[in-house]
Amino acid sequence: MQKLNYLLQHTSKLVALVFLISIAGCKEADQDVKPKTVTDVFFENEDFSILYAAIKYAGLSDALRTSTLTVFAPNDSAFHASGYPDAAAIQALPAAAVRQILEYHIMASAIKSEDLGTGTNQELPTLANNKAFITKTGSGTSINGAKVIDMDIKAANGIIHVIDRLIVPANRSLMNILQGNDEYSFLVAAITRAATSNPDILTKLTSDASSYTVFVPTNQAFIDAGFPSAAALQAAGPTALTSLIMYHVVPGRLFSTNLATGSLTTASNKQIRVETTNGLKVSGPGNMEQPANVTRADILAQNGVIHVIDRLLLP
Fold this sequence. Notes:
Elements: H1 2-32, H2 38-44, H3 49-58, H4 63-66, E1 69-74, H5 76-81, H6 87-91, H7 95-103, E2 106-107, E3 119-125, E4 131-137, E5 140-143, E6 146-155, E7 158-163, H8 174-179, H9 185-194, H10 200-206, E8 212-217, H11 219-224, H12 230-234, H13 238-246, E9 249-251, E10 262-265, E11 271-275, E12 281-283, E13 292-301, E14 304-309
Parallel strand pairs: 1-7, 8-14
Antiparallel strand pairs: 1-2, 3-4, 4-5, 5-6, 6-7, 8-9, 10-11, 11-12, 12-13, 13-14
Helix pairs in contact: 3-7, 9-13
């Protein structure tokens, strides 16, 4: 009996000792596990391989480990959708340009989805010293027309929201963007001719006093509508050209995610029709049966947004 008591006493002590050791081990393990920084999250997730390569290339790795911030993070599919098939494609740009693009995706505080108010095109300052525009409605959240597809990924130093394409800061006016692309040279010729008697048209497209959304027909769209050359447009009457151009301009900054099926009032106080059921389409009464397709959306300017279309809009 004495022997049994002795064994029980020592066994209970041994169990207690093992229990204490296991608790200490768990505490040590808990202390060793540290929350991942934003950079670490991107490094460890293969869906962000291009973004991580871009961060390294732009010299932002340390900043995304130490600063408190929010990142609207394009995944690899977002880079592909924006014309960058791999890391080499983004690294073909100057490092300073890549840094500016990345900093445009970053805000200098931790912003959870619940911190975003419901509204359209709410301005958010970015590290690139340019404003981004957040829309949050019952149907979802977007930034500059890019959809937020995953929200509130927590990191040790901030919050990550995943978006479906890159966003690019605006550093040119609407007119500057049109003048910088040969694909829009017919429209530039029409604007230049119209401005000879209606200078307000240039003011609208160059001044940042107001914002406009412009549905921009390509050169081919003008050719298909019966204008074979820029010279043909320059020979047209400036009043008629002003009416045509203003029919493609809508007051306000409207990204693709701000557009819904229905009517919009143009700068010429006429109506155009937007359809969002099967892609984004827009039309006037004169081409209701053959609406224009938006072939490229959400080109941000300092004073508005451009959507490229493949047909002229006809009143």
